[in-house]
Amino acid sequence: MEPGSIAGNKQPPGPHGSDAAPAAVRLLTVDEESAGQRLDNYLMRLLKGVPKTHLYRVIRSGEVRVNKGRAGADTRVAVGDQIRVPPMRLTAPSAAPPAPAREFPVLLEDEHLLAIAKPSGVAVHGGSGVSHGVIEQLRQSRPQARFLELVHRLDKETSGVLLLAKKRSALTALQDQFRQRDTGKIYAALVFGSWPEKLKVIDQALHKTLDAAGERHVRVVSPAHEDGRRAITLVQVAQRFADATLLRVTLKTGRTHQIRVHLAHAGHPIVGDPKYGDFARNKAFAREQGVARMFLHAAELAFDHPASGERVTLRAPLPADFATLRA
């Protein structure tokens, strides 16, 4: 069986005839191009006709097996892993138009990596109602690229430094640094209200859950919570406005939605945050300032170059909508 291929027991077409693929047990073999991906993302890419809610349900139930063992949605797959997927009916893929070719402002590029300044409002990849994102658009604009993969993620509404690998060896080395917290991450965040000058360290455990639709929700929990994970955020005041504060935020840990949840829990949600913020205040702010976005920006990223080992620090300037805020 070829790497990344699908094996299964053929069954007659379902009641939808040619509009649905036959349901069968599928055996997937992870190839080099897919190594390092999360299990859920790997399966969503290959099983495009399966509803996201159903995919998460079978993963949680243990019906999806990696090397004959149970695995979570956030499990990282490796080359040669054997993944068993239970029978799931796939709707025939629609003839969706390809992602439009697009380049983004380049912060650094060499034969090993590409760093761009991602704008707000653009997802890093397609999925969950998003037909395409940064990675698909870059691949379309660079058809000659033999390898191009995301090293990490930014939320759709977050702007700033985004790192991609142009070689498998670079991807592995960089992702190892992210997992081992060897990278330096600094964000700019505009929050509602006057941030307390003395509140400089937030050390609160976080607990992540997935709802039935596979959407992530994170909340602060007691340090004694069995599923809580310690999260540390450092905060400095950069500039004060009449009813908001611009913060310089340094991540000491890299939990999902860490900055958004920590700042909101402190009583100062990020302006424009649709999930953890204040809907009414977001709407009023957008009307007054003429800008509707979540004001979180990945301003700085430091890491060791995967080839030379030299420490690299990349900075993405504040977007124009930050700079034009009225005090």
Instruction: Compute the number of strand runs.
Output: 19
What are the low-pLDDT stretches, counting only 5+ consecutive residues below 50? 1-21
Shape: globular
Can you give the helix content as a percent range? Answer: 10-25%
What does the model show?
The protein is of the alpha+beta class and 327 residues long. The protein has 3 domains: 6-88, RNA-binding S4 domain (Structural Genomics Hypothetical 15.5 Kd Protein In mrcA-pckA Intergenic Region, Chain A); 106-176, 2-Layer Sandwich (Alpha-Beta Plaits), CATH 3.30.70; 183-323, 2-Layer Sandwich (Pseudouridine synthase). The chain has 7 helices and 19 strands. The strands form 4 sheets. Strands 8, 9, 10, 11, 12, 13, 16, 17, 18 and 19 form a 10-stranded mixed sheet that branches. The protein has a 5-stranded antiparallel sheet with strand order 1-3-6-4-5, with no helix packed on it. The chain has a two-stranded antiparallel ribbon with strand order 2-7. The chain is globular and about 60 Å long. It starts with 5 loop residues before the first strand and ends with a helix. Mean pLDDT is 86; it is low at 1-21.
Topology:
Elements: E1 6-7, E2 20-21, E3 26-29, H1 39-46, H2 52-61, E4 65-66, E5 69-70, E6 82-85, E7 90-91, E8 106-109, E9 113-118, H3 134-141, E10 149-150, E11 159-165, H4 168-179, E12 184-192, E13 201-203, E14 205-210, E15 216-221, E16 232-240, E17 244-251, H5 258-265, H6 279-289, E18 296-304, E19 311-315, H7 320-323
